[in-house]
What does this fold into?
Amino acid sequence: MARYTGPMTKKSRRLGLDLVGGDSAYERRPYPPGQHGRGRIKESEYLLQLREKQKARFTYGVLEKQFHNYYTEASRRQGKTGDNLLQLLECRLDNVVYRAGFARTRRHARQLVGHGHFRVNGKKVDIPSFQVTQFDIIDVREKSLETTPFIVARETHGERVVPAWLEAVPNRMRILVHQLPIRAQIDIPVQEQLIVEYYSKK
It folds into this structure.
């Protein structure tokens, strides 16, 4: 299962965004990390587009080829390509588990899904990139309910706001997908139009 396993705090500083969510080591500074971080960087149009693409890619934890596949699928669908792209990323099973408050970070959610702790509509799913759809019901497997991550998730539920398109039922460790998210319900600070411009030139 390919994924980026390098230092996320450095990536967060490079892109000026806490990619992990609650990264205690992340400090927002007006310059990138590294020996030459304080040097002047020409803010070209290409650099701005690339930076937005990298923000989205690292936020959701996908590699370049997979991200490009999401863009291709988004461009095929009706509506705005940028909105479709973020909707596809947001509907990944690992992201839904994170958004519902059942995991501390998206990386943690990816691990839980990969270990086979979840069922979607009664069927075991261990693919983090699995696309959830409207009216899906996601449950933690009975065997997993009393494992440490889910005991902690029940005790700490409510510390994070669950988006309106989802409903979390912590006492049953269940997630209900009421609808697919619209752009206004996706709270990542990314200018998706710049990502569309980046790929449209390739």
Q: What stands out?
A: The helical segments are 8-15, 45-60, 64-76, 81-90, 93-99, 106-114, 148-156, 192-200. DSSP finds eight helices and five strands in the chain. Residues 13 and 27 are 7 Å apart (CA to CA).
